[in-house]
Structure formats: C-alpha cells, structure tokens
Amino acid sequence: MRQVRAVSLFVVLERASSAWVGSISAVHNPAATRFYFPGGGELGCLVVAPDHRRRGLGTALIVTAVRRLRQGGYRHIFLGVQGWRLPAIRSCLRAGFQPFIHAPGLAERWRSVFAALGREPCEPEWPTSLPDSQDGSNRSG
C-alpha cells in the first residue's frame, strides 16, 4: 500500500449537537491516478450527511480544502470520485471542477454522469492535458 502525506482533514460539526455533518481531506498525492500531476494535491473523502445536503456545505468544504492546498503551494488540484457519488460530483462541479479527459472512455463515462445529474455536458471545456504538461513530464499507465 502506497502512503500519501496528509496535508489537512476538515470536519464540520453541527453547532447544537456537535454531531459530524461533513468532511473532506486534502493530501499530497501527485501520482494518485494513471496520470501524474506535478505539484499535485488531491481532494478526497468528501462526505456530507444526507440531512445536511443541498445547503452548500459540500461546496464550502471543497473551497476550504482547495484554499489550504493553494496556500501550501500546490499547482494542480484534483479529485477522483466514483460516478455513482452524484451528490459529491454535484458539489465538485458547483465549486468549478470539471472532468479531466486523460484516458480513453472517460468522456463517455462523464456524459453518463451528466445525464444522471440532469445536466448538459460542456465537453469543449473538458481539458485533456495540463496547462504546463508540454514538457512530457506526465505519464499515463
């Protein structure tokens, strides 16, 4: 098992009851996927309790974690999320993330996700490479 260096874990507790209602992690993990992200920080484990969803909490957690990674000097911030986690995907899209089409079949998979969300995909805006990856530093596989 490969280890990653934790940068931050953010947890939201309900003020009245101190009950957990949401969390997200921000980790140093430039090689988390089949694609290498130089200076890469990964958002992970975005979870919001069902009775606290659709209030902007997921988006607020994402913004907080991104801010922390940016303060730490991370240039590329990404996340991996399973296609069935529609509430998390909705929050990620709302926060400005978009699909990164770095492997065959991903565009079709994302079209299905957008259909499940009832949204029109903006495929021309989906990046297929990182802005500074012309030097060949990225690897697939």
In words, what does this structure look like?
This protein has 141 residues and is α+β, with helices and mostly antiparallel strands. It has one domain (5-125): Aminopeptidase (3-Layer(aba) Sandwich). 26% of the residues lie in helices and 22% in strands. It has three helices and four strands. It has helices spanning 57-71, 86-94, 106-117; strands at 5-13, 20-28, 40-48, 76-79. A four-stranded mixed sheet has the order 1-2-3-4, covered by helices on one side. Helix 1 links the parallel strand 3 and strand 4. The protein is globular and about 45 Å long. The two termini are 18 Å apart.
Note the main attributes of this structure:
globular; 4-stranded mixed beta sheet; disordered C terminus; Aminopeptidase; 26% helix; single chain; 141 residues; 3 helices; alpha+beta
In short:
With 141 residues, this protein is α+β, with helices and mostly antiparallel strands.
SSE map:
Elements: E1 5-13, E2 20-28, E3 40-48, H1 57-71, E4 76-79, H2 86-94, H3 106-117
Parallel strand pairs: 3-4
Antiparallel strand pairs: 1-2, 2-3
Radius of gyration: 16 Å
CATH architecture: 3-Layer(aba) Sandwich
| SS strand fraction | 15-25%
Number of strands: 4
CATH H-level superfamily title = Gcn5-related N-acetyltransferase (GNAT)
Beginning-to-end CA distance, first to last residue = 18 Å
CATH fold topology: Aminopeptidase
Uncertain spans, ≥5 residues at pLDDT below 50?
134-141
Bin the helical content: 25-40%
Q: Looking at the structure, what is the overall shape?
A: globular
The biggest beta sheet reads: 4 strands, mixed
The H-and-E topology, N to C, reads as EEEHEHH
How many helices does DSSP assign?
3
Largest sheet, order of strands side by side? 1-2-3-4
Specify the structural class: alpha+beta
CATH class: Alpha Beta
User: How many domains is the backbone divided into?
Assistant: 1
Mean pLDDT: 84
